[in-house]
Design goal:
single chain; Protein kinase domain-containing protein; Transferase(Phosphotransferase), domain 1; ATP binding; 149 residues
């Protein structure tokens, strides 16, 4: 199938964007709906958004924290209608992911890598603080990931 004239012109001009204006509204609507459902069903949304409709950069930090925790621990948050923001999952990680568990789960790794995993879990837990004012900024997160703080 050949690209539309406007898509070819955009592609030929060196831009990576395609002109899909005829289907963009429908596509964007579907993406938004899918994205919101995916996030909502998996417990990535910050409590202030879920319960008060407030959204801010700290809401994104909350979502980032959930991702850091899940990637570092290998465990998934299974949110439900009673625990939409993953409070039980977060508490479970706080209680169970001690130095001993990290060492036993990642026994083949050296001390430096174990410290990195621990740091990622700690940063993730800071990011999912219920009080958004207690969550770190993205600069603080990057500094911590780089071992600066």
């Amino acid at each position: 199938m050949s690209a539309s004239p406007s898509a070819r012109a955009t592609a030929n001009s060196g831009s990576t964007a395609l002109n899909l204006s005829h289907s963009a509204p429908l596509f964007l609507s579907a993406v938004r709906s899918f994205s919101i459902l995916q996030l909502f069903s998996r417990g990535y949304l910050a409590p202030e958004y879920l319960y008060r409709g407030e959204i801010s950069p700290q809401s994104d930090i909350y979502s980032l924290g959930m991702l850091l925790i899940q990637i570092s621990t290998g465990e998934k948050n299974k949110s439900n209608t009673e625990d939409k923001c993953g409070a039980k999952f977060i508490e479970q990680v706080r209680q169970e992911w001690t130095d001993h568990k990290i060492t036993s789960m990642y026994a083949s790794l050296g001390a430096g890598h174990l410290q990195e995993i621990k740091r990622c879990i700690e940063i993730g837990l800071q990011c999912v603080e219920v009080d958004r004012k207690k969550r770190p900024t993205i600069k603080e997160i990057i500094d911590k990931l780089n071992g600066k703080r």
